[in-house]
TrEMBL record, chains A, B, C, D:
Name assigned to this protein: Thiazole synthase
Active site, per annotation: K96 (schiff-base intermediate with dxp)
Entry's Gene Ontology molecular function annotations: thiazole synthase activity
Species this protein is from: Luteipulveratus halotolerans
Locations listed in the record: Cytoplasm
Gene designation: thiG
Amino acid sequence: MDALVLGEHTLTSRLLLGSGGATSPDALRAAVAASGTQVVTVSMRRTGGSVANGLTQELLDLPVELLPNTSGCRTAREAVLVAELARESLGTTWVKVEVVPDERTLLPDVVELLEAAETLADKGFDVLPYTTDDPLVARRLQDVGCVAVMPLGSPIGSGLGIRNPHAISLLRESVDVPVILDAGIGTASDAALAMELGCDAVLLASAVTRASHPEVMARAMRAAVEAGRLARLAGRIPRRHLAQASSPADGVMGT
Amino acid sequence: MDALVLGEHTLTSRLLLGSGGATSPDALRAAVAASGTQVVTVSMRRTGGSVANGLTQELLDLPVELLPNTSGCRTAREAVLVAELARESLGTTWVKVEVVPDERTLLPDVVELLEAAETLADKGFDVLPYTTDDPLVARRLQDVGCVAVMPLGSPIGSGLGIRNPHAISLLRESVDVPVILDAGIGTASDAALAMELGCDAVLLASAVTRASHPEVMARAMRAAVEAGRLARLAGRIPRRHLAQASSPADGVMGT
Amino acid sequence: MDALVLGEHTLTSRLLLGSGGATSPDALRAAVAASGTQVVTVSMRRTGGSVANGLTQELLDLPVELLPNTSGCRTAREAVLVAELARESLGTTWVKVEVVPDERTLLPDVVELLEAAETLADKGFDVLPYTTDDPLVARRLQDVGCVAVMPLGSPIGSGLGIRNPHAISLLRESVDVPVILDAGIGTASDAALAMELGCDAVLLASAVTRASHPEVMARAMRAAVEAGRLARLAGRIPRRHLAQASSPADGVMGT
Amino acid sequence: MDALVLGEHTLTSRLLLGSGGATSPDALRAAVAASGTQVVTVSMRRTGGSVANGLTQELLDLPVELLPNTSGCRTAREAVLVAELARESLGTTWVKVEVVPDERTLLPDVVELLEAAETLADKGFDVLPYTTDDPLVARRLQDVGCVAVMPLGSPIGSGLGIRNPHAISLLRESVDVPVILDAGIGTASDAALAMELGCDAVLLASAVTRASHPEVMARAMRAAVEAGRLARLAGRIPRRHLAQASSPADGVMGT
């Protein structure tokens, strides 16, 4: 399968994993291995850039690229500060920008997000913004220099899947940068659907880390993303109101 | 993954392929190989039991088990006759029983189906009935001795996926024999969903054979069935109306 | 609006009400009045044909036609007996035939249902069978002489609405007798949808009797059935993937 | 039913009608009468404020309040200018603010929308903004002084109904001002659903004006909005996976 280019990073896996919710470092390591992911997101705010504590070291030791996020930031200003801290701490230039002022829905505030994204892109970051499924906001994010857009399927941790496939389709048609479905994925078919709608990758955390068996779900998600990607490339049959015999009398093959 | 037992047959692949709609023997062979399937269904009616013609020989040469079906039969009597013809011709004792009197919807006639299934089970066949998503009919089919039940997701060739996941769930809870989702699958996420709902396998034809790139879709379906099966086993997170942070401040891991 | 003919009965209201779940005779009376219904179903099994007790007298005093049902019957034989009892007790010749052996799903057993329906039609009843959303079973019910078919939207009392609108559409296209959506309705939009799919009427009980305010919900359902019926007749606009300006520059009217 | 207050206007009808797409003044008049609406939206841009031409006079003669919109505006600046023109021409202080730069999706640009809404609210307008289903944007619109918010169900004229009921629910819970579902309604059950989700009113145009029989659909929509409103107030039954008998043996009433 062709590679996914996110700024300076080129990925062959199209599944990105969040580390939140993991019940232990071992569980996270096992899930990461089973998922085949090349990227794990890490929250800068709470680690404070310190690499002294064990958990952070565990993350640093994972055989993946770390993608810092601005989880917990409620304003553009906070997100910019956290992103700069991440660049200093981790030596990376990419950042997943989250600006989430509302604890109840954990939905992104697109106004603050746009401001943060523009500022960070101007500062040379490879910006990956966590956004809504609004196609016009996605295009604005592209226009201010984001290297991808990360629309939600449904609220973080809700497990509701993709509530509005139509919006994701419209969004996909509205931008040229990669689209990474982020948030809301609950199970494998959700991830497959994301790819079938034209997303270039899927980012998820709770669906794996909080599953009864995280490692098994990580394998499921790996297969689901591949399945959805292949199905998109394969060109599905159209939907029809009525039936169509798969074994027509006049078919090329008689069975 | 554990094996799927269908009467005398034990399968490790949980994807069964129909041969209908294939545009050439080579295309079918490639799709079969890519799908990893161990079973291909063949229509007895149209081949008439003759193995003299090339197309049937192509099927006979596939490195899979052939599962004869009674496609084209409109009554129980016809289905029983075709099943017996299949047993003589192919030397197999399993049969996918289809009784489909209505060309427009290609839906099974459950009254005739139940009669055919009972008769064939009494004659020693391993009966796999193509049925509706009615849980009580499925239990009746089990009670007359079917080795599995094959409910539809939506009409044959419609590509509408699983129109009633709730009914498939109820059906799954209503029988002990394996459940094979048959008909209606359009794309990979449909197949994954079938497995997540508790189906033991998926049978499809048009979704692969009529896709723009059948071999690619066959790979997609293989991955999707595996993804859905794993996701079912992994125990998905619950659905929630509101968000739940994947990186809670009080989480076990701080990221 | 044109009338709905069910055997010997001609109705102008297209909402039928079940009495089950009503918390008091007064609540039922108020709901019946608010709904505008002309028909209330009554369970013969439990009343035993006795009109001596107050509750049954309450029902007999309602300003509506009573439609006896065979609720609680698990076999065709039971249903036939109860129907005959109803004819003697109430002097009516119509009957809603329910054959429901499974307490968990309360789904109809279509095999026993078909037998009961045929027997009762032969005995001169106006048979209204509670059935699944299977179009071929519906046609069989029509063929044995039923004056209407009553497919479910989802299991009784589940409030899940119409789980498979596609099946209801196919069923509607498959029979000529009136189609009355029965079971599963949870709220007003479900009832409107039933009518938009081409159903001729809606029968519901719990959605009204168990609502927080039954009389208000009865008014809601009355309006919803009318709304859905009118919308069907009005000819809705097609669904489009993309937008279409409602105020096009070249429109006939400039606003 | 209680009244809906939109700034200086108090309405008893909860259905607002757009005039776009009407095939003739007579058709519009008939639809307006059948709908029971008290408000019709008019596009200021195209009429240019002129009341000299016949069509505008037809609108002015309707027995309703006119609500000017800024249809066709692509920026906040344009929208503000058009709103001011409307105030001068029509002597009204309310305005439906649309900022729609993208012809393909006709989705609102929430950045420009927020700017226009704030400016107009500051100038003393009663602002009704056409927005997305983003709850945080809705709250921002409330915070800058809008008297209501008008989220879309799906793209204008698409007839796709409410693509994301979950988002509309979250939006409803996120603001205190009235919520008017605007755009995407295709048929009566869509309008009922909007009200059931907690919307205070529905605005639609194409669904009525482009229906095969606009006047009949106007009646349908009137009934649907009332049905959905009543159903919301009535308190619907919960959704259950399994069945619940409506005629339980231990029910209060024996039927």
